[in-house]
Amino acid sequence: xxxEDSEIDRPDESVTSRHDEAETDRRAVVLLSGGIDSxxxxxxxxxxxxxxxxxxIDYGQRHAVELGAARASAERLGVERYIVxxxxxxxxxxxxxxxxxxxxxxxxAPESGDRSDQILEQLSDQTSDQTSGQLPDQVPVTYVPxxxxxxxxxxxxFAESVGAYDIFIGANAVDYSGYxxxxxxxxxxxxxxxxxxxAAAVEGRGRFSIHAPLIDMTKAEIIRTGVSLGIDYAxxxxxxDPSAAGLACGRCDSCVIRAKxxxxxxxxxxxxxxxx
Length: 276
Hints:
Elements: E1 2-6, E2 27-31, H1 36-47, E3 51-58, H2 65-77, E4 81-86, H3 117-126, H4 147-162, E5 166-168, H5 184-196, H6 199-202, E6 209-211, H7 219-228, H8 253-265
Parallel strand pairs: 2-3, 2-5, 3-4, 5-6
Antiparallel strand pairs: 1-4
Protein backbone atom coordinates (compact mmCIF):
# COMPACT_ATOMS: atom_id res chain seq x y z
CA UNK A 1 0.00 0.00 0.00
CA UNK A 2 1.13 3.53 -0.70
CA UNK A 3 -0.21 6.83 0.55
CA GLU A 4 -0.21 10.50 -0.38
CA ASP A 5 -0.08 12.92 2.51
CA SER A 6 -1.26 16.41 1.57
CA GLU A 7 -1.32 19.83 3.15
CA ILE A 8 -4.73 21.45 2.79
CA ASP A 9 -5.68 25.10 3.14
CA ARG A 10 -7.55 26.27 6.22
CA PRO A 11 -11.37 26.13 6.30
CA ASP A 12 -13.46 27.78 3.59
CA GLU A 13 -15.61 30.55 5.08
CA SER A 14 -18.65 29.18 3.24
CA VAL A 15 -18.67 26.05 5.40
CA THR A 16 -20.48 26.67 8.66
CA SER A 17 -18.97 25.95 12.09
CA ARG A 18 -20.95 25.84 15.31
CA HIS A 19 -17.90 27.00 17.26
CA ASP A 20 -16.11 30.36 17.09
CA GLU A 21 -12.72 29.27 18.42
CA ALA A 22 -10.02 29.27 15.75
CA GLU A 23 -8.32 26.11 16.93
CA THR A 24 -9.46 22.98 18.71
CA ASP A 25 -7.74 20.03 20.36
CA ARG A 26 -10.63 17.76 19.45
CA ARG A 27 -9.36 15.63 16.61
CA ALA A 28 -11.41 13.34 14.39
CA VAL A 29 -10.53 11.11 11.50
CA VAL A 30 -13.11 11.31 8.71
CA LEU A 31 -13.43 8.82 5.86
CA LEU A 32 -13.93 11.02 2.81
CA SER A 33 -14.98 9.42 -0.48
CA GLY A 34 -16.21 12.52 -2.31
CA GLY A 35 -19.88 11.55 -2.27
CA ILE A 36 -22.87 13.21 -0.62
CA ASP A 37 -22.76 11.16 2.57
CA SER A 38 -19.07 11.38 3.41
CA UNK A 39 -18.88 15.09 2.57
CA UNK A 40 -21.90 15.87 4.73
CA UNK A 41 -20.49 13.73 7.54
CA UNK A 42 -17.23 15.68 7.42
CA UNK A 43 -19.15 18.96 7.54
CA UNK A 44 -21.13 17.74 10.56
CA UNK A 45 -17.93 16.75 12.35
CA UNK A 46 -16.33 20.11 11.61
CA UNK A 47 -19.45 21.99 12.72
CA UNK A 48 -19.33 20.03 15.98
CA UNK A 49 -15.89 21.47 16.68
CA UNK A 50 -13.55 18.73 15.54
CA UNK A 51 -10.25 19.32 13.76
CA UNK A 52 -10.52 17.07 10.73
CA UNK A 53 -7.96 14.48 9.65
CA UNK A 54 -9.36 13.20 6.38
CA UNK A 55 -8.65 9.83 4.81
CA UNK A 56 -9.56 8.89 1.25
CA ILE A 57 -9.05 5.33 0.00
CA ASP A 58 -7.98 4.82 -3.59
CA TYR A 59 -8.97 1.17 -3.86
CA GLY A 60 -8.98 0.81 -7.64
CA GLN A 61 -12.66 1.74 -7.96
CA ARG A 62 -13.98 2.14 -11.48
CA HIS A 63 -15.49 5.51 -10.46
CA ALA A 64 -12.07 6.99 -9.66
CA VAL A 65 -13.47 10.43 -10.49
CA GLU A 66 -14.69 10.47 -6.88
CA LEU A 67 -11.08 10.87 -5.75
CA GLY A 68 -11.00 14.36 -7.25
CA ALA A 69 -14.30 15.15 -5.57
CA ALA A 70 -12.88 13.98 -2.24
CA ARG A 71 -9.87 16.25 -2.56
CA ALA A 72 -12.11 19.20 -3.46
CA SER A 73 -14.22 18.52 -0.37
CA ALA A 74 -11.12 18.29 1.82
CA GLU A 75 -9.91 21.65 0.52
CA ARG A 76 -13.28 23.34 1.09
CA LEU A 77 -13.53 21.91 4.60
CA GLY A 78 -10.00 23.00 5.46
CA VAL A 79 -8.87 19.72 7.00
CA GLU A 80 -5.77 19.65 9.19
CA ARG A 81 -4.27 16.75 7.29
CA TYR A 82 -5.35 14.83 4.22
CA ILE A 83 -4.16 11.37 3.23
CA VAL A 84 -5.00 9.42 0.09
CA UNK A 85 -4.23 5.79 0.86
CA UNK A 86 -3.77 3.49 -2.11
CA UNK A 87 -4.68 -0.18 -1.78
CA UNK A 88 -5.81 -1.99 -4.88
CA UNK A 89 -8.84 -4.12 -4.10
CA UNK A 90 -8.99 -5.12 -7.76
CA UNK A 91 -6.57 -7.86 -6.72
CA UNK A 92 -9.53 -9.51 -4.99
CA UNK A 93 -12.32 -8.41 -7.33
CA UNK A 94 -15.75 -9.72 -6.49
CA UNK A 95 -17.55 -6.42 -7.10
CA UNK A 96 -18.80 -4.42 -10.06
CA UNK A 97 -16.69 -1.56 -8.71
CA UNK A 98 -13.41 -3.51 -8.69
CA UNK A 99 -13.89 -6.29 -11.24
CA UNK A 100 -15.02 -6.92 -14.80
CA UNK A 101 -18.67 -7.01 -13.79
CA UNK A 102 -21.34 -4.71 -15.23
CA UNK A 103 -22.79 -2.08 -12.93
CA UNK A 104 -26.57 -2.71 -12.66
CA UNK A 105 -28.50 -0.15 -14.72
CA UNK A 106 -31.80 -0.02 -16.58
CA UNK A 107 -33.38 2.79 -14.62
CA UNK A 108 -34.62 6.04 -16.18
CA ALA A 109 -31.74 8.41 -16.89
CA PRO A 110 -32.18 12.18 -17.05
CA GLU A 111 -31.51 13.61 -20.48
CA SER A 112 -28.71 16.11 -20.89
CA GLY A 113 -29.51 19.20 -18.87
CA ASP A 114 -32.95 17.87 -17.91
CA ARG A 115 -33.85 18.49 -14.25
CA SER A 116 -37.61 18.27 -14.69
CA ASP A 117 -39.81 17.06 -11.88
CA GLN A 118 -41.24 14.48 -14.25
CA ILE A 119 -37.85 12.80 -14.76
CA LEU A 120 -37.01 12.89 -11.07
CA GLU A 121 -40.44 11.56 -10.13
CA GLN A 122 -39.83 8.60 -12.39
CA LEU A 123 -36.55 8.02 -10.61
CA SER A 124 -38.33 8.34 -7.27
CA ASP A 125 -40.97 5.78 -8.24
CA GLN A 126 -38.32 3.27 -9.25
CA THR A 127 -36.45 3.59 -5.95
CA SER A 128 -39.44 3.36 -3.59
CA ASP A 129 -38.61 -0.20 -2.57
CA GLN A 130 -34.85 0.32 -2.63
CA THR A 131 -34.96 3.28 -0.24
CA SER A 132 -37.31 1.73 2.31
CA GLY A 133 -34.42 0.95 4.66
CA GLN A 134 -34.95 -2.80 4.41
CA LEU A 135 -32.00 -5.01 3.50
CA PRO A 136 -32.75 -6.66 0.13
CA ASP A 137 -32.77 -10.44 -0.14
CA GLN A 138 -29.65 -10.25 -2.29
CA VAL A 139 -26.83 -7.76 -1.77
CA PRO A 140 -26.13 -5.98 -5.08
CA VAL A 141 -22.95 -6.64 -7.08
CA THR A 142 -21.76 -3.09 -6.36
CA TYR A 143 -21.01 -4.24 -2.81
CA VAL A 144 -17.23 -4.38 -2.35
CA PRO A 145 -16.28 -7.29 -0.06
CA UNK A 146 -15.58 -6.02 3.47
CA UNK A 147 -14.98 -2.47 2.19
CA UNK A 148 -16.16 -0.58 5.25
CA UNK A 149 -14.35 -3.02 7.53
CA UNK A 150 -11.13 -2.31 5.64
CA UNK A 151 -11.75 1.44 5.53
CA UNK A 152 -12.53 1.68 9.22
CA UNK A 153 -9.45 -0.39 10.08
CA UNK A 154 -7.28 2.08 8.18
CA UNK A 155 -9.09 5.02 9.77
CA UNK A 156 -8.50 3.46 13.19
CA UNK A 157 -4.76 3.14 12.51
CA PHE A 158 -4.65 6.77 11.36
CA ALA A 159 -6.62 7.88 14.41
CA GLU A 160 -4.42 6.05 16.89
CA SER A 161 -1.29 7.47 15.25
CA VAL A 162 -2.47 11.10 15.55
CA GLY A 163 -4.17 10.84 18.94
CA ALA A 164 -7.72 11.06 17.64
CA TYR A 165 -10.40 9.05 19.40
CA ASP A 166 -13.33 9.93 17.17
CA ILE A 167 -13.81 8.40 13.73
CA PHE A 168 -16.56 9.54 11.37
CA ILE A 169 -18.02 7.49 8.53
CA GLY A 170 -20.89 8.37 6.19
CA ALA A 171 -22.70 5.04 6.53
CA ASN A 172 -26.44 5.21 5.99
CA ALA A 173 -29.04 2.51 6.63
CA VAL A 174 -32.06 4.26 5.09
CA ASP A 175 -31.39 5.41 1.51
CA TYR A 176 -28.76 2.82 0.64
CA SER A 177 -28.27 -0.12 -1.71
CA GLY A 178 -28.50 -2.89 0.88
CA TYR A 179 -24.87 -3.15 1.94
CA UNK A 180 -24.50 -5.11 5.21
CA UNK A 181 -21.63 -2.90 6.37
CA UNK A 182 -23.82 0.22 6.45
CA UNK A 183 -26.00 -0.99 9.33
CA UNK A 184 -25.94 0.26 12.94
CA UNK A 185 -25.04 -3.22 14.21
CA UNK A 186 -21.85 -3.20 12.15
CA UNK A 187 -20.84 0.25 13.41
CA UNK A 188 -21.41 -0.81 17.03
CA UNK A 189 -19.37 -3.98 16.66
CA UNK A 190 -16.49 -2.18 15.01
CA UNK A 191 -16.39 0.28 17.89
CA UNK A 192 -16.09 -2.69 20.26
CA UNK A 193 -13.22 -4.04 18.17
CA UNK A 194 -11.46 -0.66 18.15
CA UNK A 195 -11.40 -0.60 21.93
CA UNK A 196 -10.14 -4.17 22.20
CA UNK A 197 -7.45 -4.09 19.55
CA UNK A 198 -5.53 -0.83 20.09
CA ALA A 199 -2.76 0.05 22.52
CA ALA A 200 -4.29 3.46 23.15
CA ALA A 201 -7.54 1.93 24.40
CA VAL A 202 -5.95 -0.96 26.32
CA GLU A 203 -3.54 1.38 28.09
CA GLY A 204 -6.38 3.71 29.03
CA ARG A 205 -5.26 6.72 27.01
CA GLY A 206 -8.68 7.07 25.44
CA ARG A 207 -11.76 5.30 24.17
CA PHE A 208 -12.52 5.22 20.46
CA SER A 209 -15.95 6.22 19.20
CA ILE A 210 -17.21 5.44 15.71
CA HIS A 211 -19.65 8.13 14.59
CA ALA A 212 -22.17 7.57 11.80
CA PRO A 213 -24.28 10.73 12.17
CA LEU A 214 -26.28 10.08 9.00
CA ILE A 215 -27.13 6.45 9.67
CA ASP A 216 -30.86 7.02 10.31
CA MET A 217 -31.37 9.92 7.91
CA THR A 218 -33.03 9.87 4.50
CA LYS A 219 -31.03 11.17 1.56
CA ALA A 220 -33.24 14.27 1.51
CA GLU A 221 -32.49 14.95 5.18
CA ILE A 222 -28.78 14.48 4.52
CA ILE A 223 -28.86 16.95 1.63
CA ARG A 224 -30.77 19.54 3.64
CA THR A 225 -28.25 19.17 6.48
CA GLY A 226 -25.32 19.65 4.12
CA VAL A 227 -26.86 22.70 2.49
CA SER A 228 -27.43 24.24 5.92
CA LEU A 229 -23.72 23.72 6.63
CA GLY A 230 -22.62 25.36 3.39
CA ILE A 231 -21.89 22.27 1.30
CA ASP A 232 -21.95 22.71 -2.48
CA TYR A 233 -23.03 19.31 -3.77
CA ALA A 234 -21.88 20.19 -7.27
CA UNK A 235 -18.43 19.29 -5.93
CA UNK A 236 -19.51 15.76 -4.98
CA UNK A 237 -19.76 12.59 -7.03
CA UNK A 238 -22.00 9.55 -6.54
CA UNK A 239 -22.17 7.64 -9.84
CA UNK A 240 -20.79 4.10 -9.97
CA ASP A 241 -20.39 4.10 -13.74
CA PRO A 242 -19.42 7.61 -14.92
CA SER A 243 -18.46 8.51 -18.47
CA ALA A 244 -14.84 9.06 -19.47
CA ALA A 245 -15.46 12.75 -18.84
CA GLY A 246 -16.66 12.03 -15.30
CA LEU A 247 -20.35 12.65 -15.99
CA ALA A 248 -22.93 10.67 -14.02
CA CYS A 249 -24.70 7.84 -15.86
CA GLY A 250 -28.11 8.55 -14.27
CA ARG A 251 -28.96 4.85 -14.26
CA CYS A 252 -27.03 3.11 -11.49
CA ASP A 253 -28.48 2.69 -8.01
CA SER A 254 -26.32 5.46 -6.60
CA CYS A 255 -27.45 7.97 -9.24
CA VAL A 256 -31.10 7.07 -8.71
CA ILE A 257 -30.90 7.40 -4.92
CA ARG A 258 -29.07 10.72 -5.28
CA ALA A 259 -31.66 12.12 -7.71
CA LYS A 260 -34.50 11.03 -5.44
CA UNK A 261 -32.80 12.74 -2.51
CA UNK A 262 -32.70 16.10 -4.29
CA UNK A 263 -36.28 15.67 -5.43
CA UNK A 264 -37.51 14.89 -1.93
CA UNK A 265 -35.46 17.74 -0.46
CA UNK A 266 -36.92 20.20 -3.00
CA UNK A 267 -33.38 21.31 -3.82
CA UNK A 268 -32.11 21.60 -7.41
CA UNK A 269 -29.94 18.67 -8.45
CA UNK A 270 -26.50 19.99 -9.53
CA UNK A 271 -25.39 16.63 -10.95
CA UNK A 272 -23.94 16.68 -14.47
CA UNK A 273 -25.30 13.73 -16.44
CA UNK A 274 -23.81 12.09 -19.51
CA UNK A 275 -25.43 12.72 -22.88
CA UNK A 276 -28.07 10.15 -23.76
